[in-house]
Every structure is written in C-alpha cells, then in structure tokens.
C-alpha cells in the first residue's frame, strides 16, 4: 500500500530525481481550494499504485525555488518524473482514473 511522501528542497533530489520508479509530484499550496479537492484523490492514487510508483506532495510556498525551476504557474500541477526527467504534466484537478493511467503509461 502506497503512501504520499512529502517532498521539499532538502529531499527532492533523493526522492524524485534518484528514483528508479515513476514519481508523481503534486505541486500544491495550502491556500488553494482546488488543491484541497485533489488531496483525497491523490491519497486514492497512492493506494492504487502502491509500490509501482512514488506519489509525492510539494508545497510551492515552502519550496518556491522548485516551483520556479519547474515553471509551476498554476496549482495544482501534477508532474510525472521518470528517470529524473519530467515525462508528463497535468494541470488542474483531474479524475483519479486519468492520473492512474498517466502513471501506468510510464511504468
């Protein structure tokens, strides 16, 4: 059973960039209504993909430099990393099925 991993500037490289598995990063903000709507969906995604992928959350207000580096201009933004590279980006609230399918496409 998968759990969501909180990432920040200190652990981003280790958790996301160095992962052998696909990594889905939810760039979010505490003040963002749509981000709060997406949160339970991300919990379900983490449970569904289990050990096949890593699901992470990154608070853009706590890691502004990463938000700037990855050109996150709207939250929520989901980025799927594979081998340290952005393989796919989904902007806005998306249904669980679409997010899971994106992960399956990059396994």
Q: What's this entry about, in short?
A:
The chain is of the alpha/beta class. It is built from four helices and five strands. The relative contact order is 0.25.
Mean pLDDT: 94
The unreliable regions are none
How is the largest sheet built, in terms of strand order?
1-3-2-4-5
Question: What is the makeup of the main sheet?
Answer: 5 strands, mixed
| Count of helical stretches | 4
Strand content: 25-35%
Characterise this structure:
- Helix 2 packs across helix 4.
- The protein is 36% helix and 27% strand.
- The longest helix is centred in the middle third of the chain and has 17 residues.
- Strands 1-3-2-4-5 form a 5-stranded mixed β-sheet.
- The model has no long low-confidence stretch (mean pLDDT 94).
- By secondary structure, the protein is α/β, with parallel strands linked by helices.
- The protein has 4 helices and 5 strands, in the order E-H-E-H-E-H-E-E-H.
List the helices and strands and how they pair.
Blueprint: E1 4-7, H1 12-17, E2 23-28, H2 33-49, E3 54-59, H3 64-69, E4 77-82, E5 85-91, H4 96-105
Parallel strand pairs: 1-3, 2-3
Antiparallel strand pairs: 2-4, 4-5
List keywords for this structure.
alpha/beta, 5-stranded mixed sheet, 4 helices, single chain, 107 residues
């Amino acid at each position: 059973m998968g759990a969501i991993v909180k990432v920040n500037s200190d652990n981003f490289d280790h958790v996301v960039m160095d992962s052998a598995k696909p990594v889905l990063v939810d760039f979010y903000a505490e003040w963002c209504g749509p981000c709060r709507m997406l949160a339970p969906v991300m919990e379900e995604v983490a449970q569904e993909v289990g050990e096949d992928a890593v699901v992470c959350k990154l608070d853009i207000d706590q890691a502004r430099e990463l938000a700037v580096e990855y050109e996150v201009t709207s939250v929520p933004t989901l980025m799927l990393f594979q081998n340290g590279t952005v393989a796919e980006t989904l902007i806005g609230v998306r249904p669980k099925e679409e997010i899971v399918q994106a992960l399956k496409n990059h396994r």
